[in-house]
Design a protein that fits this description.
11-stranded mixed sheet, 4 helices, 256 residues
Amino acid sequence: MADARAFRLPTGAVAVLVFVASLFVLLVLFRSDGSPDVAELLGSYEPAGVEARVQERLGEVKLRPSAGLRVRGRRIEWRDAAGRPFLAAPVLTFTIRLGGPDGAVLIENGVARAPEVRLVEVAPGAWNYERPLAPLLGDEARGTDGGSSQVAVRMRDIRLVDGHVVLEMLDATYEARSLEARLSSARLTGPGLDAPVFRVAGAEATLVLPDTGAATVTRPVTMGDATLRLVDGALAFEAAEATFGGSRFADARGLW
């Protein structure tokens, strides 16, 4: 079998890229200046002209569309704390459904075309996307006991088409070109869930390895039927099948 160390790092790197890219749809939905705001989208469903005294007697009334809302955004851009774009896409479409049996938010049937992702490790274990994500996945999204979020957010059937991802670590830089991925499902937040879990039906990309002083090294990489989990700041992955260059692997797993 091929050297385990040589396989683990590139496959783990692609797993990180798929994980972060799949968060893109959720980020744009909640925070991007270039995308529709959820409150604005749902505003037309709220009853107009309801008297204040009736609201006080009946409490807050939340009306939610039963068939879901189809959203299409263009020229989406998301910036980090330094003002640098780290997530962007010219076209993004998805359907959002609210108020499931457990009150979950479901984002499904999404397509992000030509997404651009640039992740920078600004300090050991700290990344440029963490501060923008804090209101959604950080303390503000968690329960009063500091544990898992009380709001369930899930994704289903999300595709990434022709993506480009750059991962700048303190000691190395990786790049994925022509990233194609299909996310079958994901649990991002929810009661009892301390970290996101992603199920990837398939992903492929051209991985550019760190410069070793020679010519740039590129390798085609694929993953199929994979599960990705965040564990204590690291990414655990399992894949029924994976390829790296000319090597093929079955039941691959590791921690990156």
